[in-house]
């Protein structure tokens, strides 16, 4: 390859990289990388509150231990990583039952743009049988994940592709 041709290729590659970087750092992409988690206690009136505690993968507490009465909710919003490193874990306790699982997890970093997270704005309903997650689009739609209360081992019941 001639020196002129390699200089042109290098310049084009440099411009593409700089354009991508400016898009990321100027706020162009983050608008599409906003996530949220809402957790609703839907167990029923007159029963023991559900205790919830949530943290990030780096152990940053996002919800300190909170007791949710029936009908109450707790939640947070966040900007997730374009590299697929965002994860939030919650611990739940209801009477003698417990459970811990990822309430929001990013797609595999290698497939981030091809395979999105199961829900971007996850709405979790805590019910007597366990937990159901929906994508919040204004109206609850298809269940995207479901867990039972812990027995001997934690089991994931269902997760849509």
UniProtKB/TrEMBL annotation:
InterPro entries, alphabetized: Self-incomp_S1 (IPR010264)
Any one annotated GO CC term: extracellular region
Signal peptide: 1-26
Swiss-Prot/TrEMBL keywords: Secreted, Self-incompatibility, Signal
GO biological process terms on file: rejection of self pollen
Top-level taxon: Eukaryota
Compartments where found: Secreted
Chief location: secreted
Protein family membership: Belongs to the plant self-incompatibility (S1) protein family.
Name recorded for this polypeptide: S-protein homolog
Organism, scientific name: Ceratodon purpureus
Taxonomic classification: Eukaryota, Viridiplantae, Streptophyta, Embryophyta, Bryophyta
């Amino acid at each position: 390859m001639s020196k002129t041709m390699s200089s042109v290729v290098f310049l084009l590659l440099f411009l593409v990289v700089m354009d991508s970087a400016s898009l990321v750092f100027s706020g162009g992409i983050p608008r599409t990388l906003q996530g949220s988690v809402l957790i609703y206690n839907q167990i029923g009136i007159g029963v023991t509150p559900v205790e919830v505690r949530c943290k990030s993968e780096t152990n940053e507490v996002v919800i300190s231990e909170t007791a949710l009465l029936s009908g109450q909710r707790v939640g947070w919003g966040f900007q997730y990583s374009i590299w697929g490193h965002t994860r939030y874990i919650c611990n739940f306790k209801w009477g003698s039952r417990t459970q811990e699982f990822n309430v929001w997890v990013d797609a595999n970093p290698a497939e981030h743009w091809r395979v999105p997270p199961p829900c971007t704005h996850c709405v979790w309903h805590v019910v007597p049988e366990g937990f159901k997650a929906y994508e919040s689009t204004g109206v609850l739609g298809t269940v995207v994940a479901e867990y039972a209360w812990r027995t001997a081992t934690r089991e994931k019941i269902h997760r849509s592709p």
